[in-house]
Give the backbone structure.
Amino acid sequence: GQNIDQPTEMTATEGAIVQINCTYQTSGFNGLFWYQQHAGEAPTFLSYNVLDGLEEKGRFSSFLSRSKGYSYLLLKELQMKDSASYLCVLLASGGSYIPTFGRGTSLIVHP
Amino acid sequence: NAGVTQTPKFRVLKTGQSMTLLCAQDMNHEYMYWYRQDPGMGLRLIHYSVGEGTTAKGEVPDGYNVSRLKKQNFLLGLESAAPSQTSVYFCASSSSGGYTFGSGTRLTVV
């Protein structure tokens, strides 16, 4: 099975940088996603890592270390609209496309 | 617009009533999923389908049934609704990874 651990809640200041960590245990690895979910809305895709290293996309970056079972999402130049839940999503290996969702990190951005 | 469409968006049921939630996607995705999301629990997989005519149980399948008669549609049925099924339901689809979600159905069972 898979197990995902991420902080429940984080707070940060507008304009700052925040790093949301995710650790996982899995018997096989096929990729790791980060999704953003605003309150009352559907999750939306942010990033996908399958190889070790950093993936940068505008203000958002995601890092993966498969040997450590560790990923983080880095948000730069925080804006109020970044207040949302951030979901770490694990895709196990074996030909299955069934993802396992973490419980999400609620990020609160204040002025 | 391409994507995943869920109907209805809101519904209130009385205990024991039945209903069907419809999910439709126009991206020709093979995989479709039904999740429920409850406060503090994250997204939990109810049932999923890897292709037309196939369905499989997820993490929390009890009390639900599904059908995938057409590739683009995935139906979630509640035969006898219970208050414990009060939740927000999300449908999603994918091809080779990367998941597109519908806007959700907020269901209240009283």
Q: What stands out?
A: Chain A is about 0% helix and 55% strand.
